């Protein structure tokens, strides 16, 4: 979001915990702020924030985004959207801008994020450029127990894989792939891909432990 190596932001030692009294320092201007101020972009984030929420000024809609649907912390459960971190701080963390979403406990987060992206694209006025940032929860594990939650509709698709954990992981990855495909199709149908840059970034490499 800053274009600056983490060692220069003070956040290089470890990820931000939910109990952290700080966040990404406010003197850093983020990518959506540049795009909005210099080029009048519409800016949206769908998914994981994890750059701090100790004060409202740290949250997405105060740092250049017109809207945010997703969660502020580092990880949570895909269905009930709650999380307890290693410090024992627990809570429901699923939001639309500054408001808590309370009616999504039966919706798999990847599916929820897909629907939100499709809504943004459908409502967008194509005379204005748009920055859509989609940091999926997938394929991150859930909660402090590092469990994996899969969408049931893909349960049988990977039965040929001998490891049950890897079956689940494959289903989680496939659901993300399907979501990306739906978003790309929506952009195509609205003729927005004719002048778009699509960037895929992974924030981590593969975890060597089998349960991940």
TrEMBL record:
Residue stretches in coiled coil: none
Question: What Gene Ontology molecular function terms does this protein carry?
Answer: metal ion binding; sulfuric ester hydrolase activity
Record domain Sulfatase N-terminal: where: 2-207
Top-level taxonomic group? Eukaryota
Has UniProt tagged this entry with the keyword Metal-binding? yes
**Family recorded in the similarity comment:** Belongs to the sulfatase family.
This chain belongs to which protein, by name?
A: Sulfatase N-terminal domain-containing protein
């Amino acid at each position: 979001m800053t274009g600056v190596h983490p060692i220069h932001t003070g956040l290089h030692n470890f990820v931000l915990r939910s109990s952290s009294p700080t966040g990404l320092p406010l003197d850093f201007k983020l990518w959506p702020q540049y795009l909005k101020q210099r080029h009048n972009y519409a800016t949206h984030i769908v998914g994981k924030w994890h750059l701090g929420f100790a004060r409202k000024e740290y949250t997405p809609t105060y740092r250049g985004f017109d809207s945010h649907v997703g969660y502020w912390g580092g990880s949570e459960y895909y269905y009930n959207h709650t999380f307890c971190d290693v410090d024992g701080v627990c809570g429901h963390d699923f939001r639309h801008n500054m408001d808590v979403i309370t009616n999504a406990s039966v919706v798999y987060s990847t599916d929820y994020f897909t629907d939100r992206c499709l809504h943004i694209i459908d409502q967008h006025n194509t005379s204005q450029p748009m920055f859509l940032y989609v940091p999926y929860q997938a394929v991150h594990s859930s909660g402090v127990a590092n469990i994996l939650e899969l969408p049931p509709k893909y349960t049988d698709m990977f039965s040929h894989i001998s490891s049950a954990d890897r079956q689940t992981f494959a289903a989680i990855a496939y659901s993300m792939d399907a979501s990306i495909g739906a978003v790309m199709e929506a952009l195509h149908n609205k003729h927005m891909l004719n002048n778009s840059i699509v960037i895929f970034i992974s924030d981590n490499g593969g975890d060597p432990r089998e349960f991940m």
